[in-house]
Amino acid sequence: MSEWVKGTVVGKHIWTDGLYSIQVDAPMADFTAGQYTKIALDIGTDRVGRPYSLVNAPQDRPLEVLFNEVPGGPLTPRLSELKIGDPVWVAAQAGGIFTLESVQPADTLWLLATGTAIGVYLSILRTAAPWEHFKRVILVHGVRAAADLVYGETLASIAAQRGPQFSLIPAISRETQAQALHGRITDLLTSGALEERAAARIDPESSHVMLCGNSAMIKDAKQILEARGLVRHRRHAPGHYSAEQYH
């Protein structure tokens, strides 16, 4: 199979100024929830591609990715200009091991995301695995502004379907909103406000934590978790937290 397959844009959503999702019809191979693909465009004589988490569940099509436009960047300003029917290149095979495949069951699964990293968790949440292996699933979405809290309808549908097994905790760092915690995820971890809101503790005995988002959040969260005795999860050495930071 070739490295790239041809795709066609079949859907586009502008969430805020600079925040987009696109849906692509492409014959990509099957994937596991939590994996990413690469989206590319031919720019001049170069094919420029970047990795993006898949938002859709493995059983669903079209493919969907969520991204921020990076002003002056080589790819995202062009991705944001795509229209329905435009061609794109998609990696033939998904990549990554940020999945639940080798994660041990626990009482609570914590999904910590900043910005567009929420996309990977939407794929995972739309599969059976988290609900079969964990008593509670807590999704924390850290953003700068309330407008960046995307996929509200999708999350409301998951909440309605899963009831008390699912909790969504928004955290906004640069604004205040009644329903959201105020501050960065790592500060809310340190202060205890996050666990107080969730009515659950993060510890090695009861928790698995997944981290996805900006590198500063992941670096600081790792230190906080390891200070509590949590060990990084590896495929052949199960641990208590997993991290993905290609974003």
What is shown here, in short?
By secondary structure, the chain is α/β, with parallel strands linked by helices. The protein contains seven helices and twelve strands. Helices cover 22% and strands 34% of the residues.
Q: Low-confidence spans: pLDDT under 50, at least 5 residues?
A: none
Main sheet overview: 6 strands, antiparallel
Proportion of helical residues: 10-25%
Structural class: alpha/beta
Query: What is the strand content?
Result: 25-35%
End-to-end separation:
26 Å
Q: What is the approximate shape? A: globular
Q: Could you state the order of secondary-structure elements as H and E? A: EEEEEHEEHHEHEEHHEHE
CATH class descriptor of the largest domain = Alpha Beta
Number of domains: 2
Your description of this structure?
- The structure is a single chain.
- This protein has 247 residues and is of the alpha/beta class.
- The chain has 2 domains: 4-91, Translation factors (Elongation Factor Tu (Ef-tu), domain 3); 106-244, Rossmann fold (3-Layer(aba) Sandwich), CATH 3.40.50.
- Helices cover 22% and strands 34% of the residues.
- A 6-stranded antiparallel sheet has the order 4-3-6-1-2-5.
- The mean pLDDT is 95.
Features:
single chain, Elongation Factor Tu (Ef-tu), domain 3, 2 domains, 6-stranded parallel sheet, 22% helix, 247 residues, alpha/beta, Rossmann fold
